[in-house]
Design a protein that fits this description.
Elements: H1 2-11, H2 26-41, H3 44-48, E1 51-56, H4 65-72, H5 76-90, E2 95-98, E3 104-108, H6 111-114, E4 123-126, E5 131-133, E6 142-145, E7 151-156, E8 162-166, E9 172-176, E10 180-182, E11 187-193, E12 196-203
Length: 206
């Protein structure tokens, strides 16, 4: 039992850098290029054309292209968030996986897959330039500059702009939410529908 626990601890990743596992598929590469073009141009129609008819919008049961459009165009702020989150995700690699039904899917950012096995609700990865501080204050003593993509275990987060975290080596401190990314932050999921890759979800949470 102790050996198993030790082996699991050793196997747990200490960082989650962007990786690229989705090359070599011309159709999927073309889809990603079209997606990037739509995001750059803020082309909602272009984005919608890349989605499956049953695209998941939220974990509250909402799905479908019409629901997606309604959800993300309710206000100017919602639209700004859509393009910002899509743009951020597209810079963070792509990974392959298989769902519970044995169907292949692909995910952007890659850390949604490469971090599998970690607690999605309490795991964060430090963005480049993140600093671990002694208190939840930008002027507080800097305990260390975190290596990019370090896995951080959440100690406490009240929904504010700072998170109390612990590093893989046991260092405690606070980091700004602007300098980390949650394992279950917004991600783009791609699945195959009738033999074609399409966007099947754009969600956050679990």
């Amino acid at each position: 039992m102790l050996f198993t626990a030790f082996a699991l601890a050793v196997a747990a990743p200490v960082n989650l850098p962007p990786v690229e596992q989705c090359r070599g598929d011309a159709e999927f590469t073309r889809l990603r290029q079209q997606l990037q073009k739509a995001v750059t141009a803020r082309d909602l129609d272009g984005l919608m054309s890349l989605m499956s008819e049953d695209v998941r919008v939220s974990f509250g049961g909402q799905s479908g292209r019409e629901r997606f459009s309604d959800y993300w165009t309710a206000s100017e702020q919602d639209q700004e968030l859509l393009w910002a989150e899509l743009g951020s995700a597209l810079r963070l690699g792509c990974a392959q996986a298989v769902d519970g039904e044995g169907k292949p899917y692909r995910a952007i950012p890659a850390m949604f897959v490469t971090g599998d096995g970690l607690d999605g609700f309490s795991t964060w990865a430090s963005l480049p330039g993140a600093v671990l501080r002694s208190k939840p204050d930008a002027k507080a003593v800097a305990r260390m500059r975190l290596p990019a993509w370090t896995v951080l275990s959440e100690v406490e987060h009240d929904g504010g702009s700072w998170i109390e975290v612990r590093t893989p080596k046991g260092r405690d401190g606070f980091v700004s939410t602007e300098q980390v990314r949650s394992l279950i932050d917004y991600r783009i999921i791609f699945g195959q529908r009738e033999g074609r890759w399409q966007i099947t979800a754009f969600v956050a949470g679990d």
